[in-house]
Amino acid sequence: MHSESLPAPPRIPRVLAIAGSDPSGGAGIQADLKSIAANGGYGMAAITALTAQNTQGVRAVHVPPAAFLTAQLDAISDDIGIDAVKIGMLGDAAVIDAVRGWLEKVRPAVVVLDPVMVATSGDRLLQESAEAALQALLPLADLITPNLAELAILLKEPVAADWSEALAQGKRLAALTGTTVLVKGGHLQGAGPGDGHAHDADGHDAAAGAGSGCPDALVNTGGLLGQETVVVPGERIATRNSHGTGCSLSSAMATVQARVGDWEAALREVKPWLLGALREASALDVGSGNGPVHHFHHLQAGQGPAAGEFAAALRAGAAGDLEAIYALDFVRGLADGTLPEHEFAYYLAQDAIYLNGYSRVLARAAAIAPTEAEQLFWARSAQTCLEVESELHRSWLSTRPTASTLGPVTKAYVDHLLAASVSGSYGVLVAAALPCFWLYAEVGSTLHREFLAGGAPGEHPYAGWLRTYADEDFTAATRQAIAYTDTAAGRASESERQAMALAFRQSSRYEVDFFDAPRLYA
Q1: Is 483 exposed, middle or buried (0-12, 13-18, 19+ CB in 10 A)?
Q2: Less Cβ crowding at N or C end of the chain, within 10 Å?
């Protein structure tokens, strides 16, 4: 089932950013275009305002006539298909009305609105007379990404003091506009090393505060599992180099949403990328104030491993676990036919339970995979777990009654995989899932060879089971899973690759424990 050719890569999303310009390159249109490119899109730009600014502050702002903005927008849409739009700094009511009129005429498939109204410091960046025009624009967006101060102004409420209140405000705004709202937790715990920084061209004080966590939440999203609210946890990076974070997040969300078609999947892909952009920002050494994030941290020459290098390192690291598996009484007994029947029945029952959880993990990988080919592969693998492997196990278990309760090793392994699935990192997720392909395939092929070499298959009680290890489709799927994991490592930052290696190592250890569990619990 895995032997057919994979589909051609999807078309690169064409993303239009409508925002102000930052000549220092860290925020506004410049950040938008970098974010779009870094996340696999083709970026276009319509300028709403010109600023004179650097990393220390904004010195002047010039807003061209709204009619000229309309001319820019019409010139683009008359000639070029637009897959997604990101809207940032608008400035006044005339500009907002121009954008609104164009959206109503063109109706882009994806619209992300970063409602620039006020900086986290409290400085107003949108004329109060324009607030009504902005309110009328909100329902035309598919996703709204306010900072906490903007969220409060849109609702005419005080700024949220904690995360629960921020979520409650996000729900109220979503209900008011009928639009998905991204509630951002970056400023809840106060400003960190960025105190006193100037606002970026999209109107945000992007300084990252101190603290241990930085969650984001999608409200009114539907989500992968239909939730009204999906919270994605994240690490807080203490850095003063965070200029343009809000701009970068919103434009990246527009780009990835145009590619994957799911807001939760988009956020889970964008958040680790932005985390790496913040973590690696100091490498840029731009300006003496609030420096920009490193949009292309994951693409720097020489930074990532060569093709196949990461996978080879994973395989080398798993060598000890494979040796441990081969030395287990369960595996030796399965190979020579001396394994007690009750231990084999326990193994099958636990494997059936495990595959049910594993299929959910693979389905999540399919949802957040960055390419259509990867989405299709992981989705088919998830389906295989349920429709093929589970059916085989049920056939065996029908003649080998055994307790079907969840065992401690099975629970720990599945919990580990589910934790990886909500980590926000596609790379970590597929690395955690890989040992069930790779180690299982290697052990299976070895057992099958020994079975064939042993002769007298009719006398072997597990002959039918061992023959399943010779499945060519599973071997091909394993090679593909290895290749996709290696590619994900090439796209990842160094810290994410370390997390991938750790997730793989932990899953490899669980594979050892899973094969040994029948001896302990059967």
Answers
A1: middle
A2: N
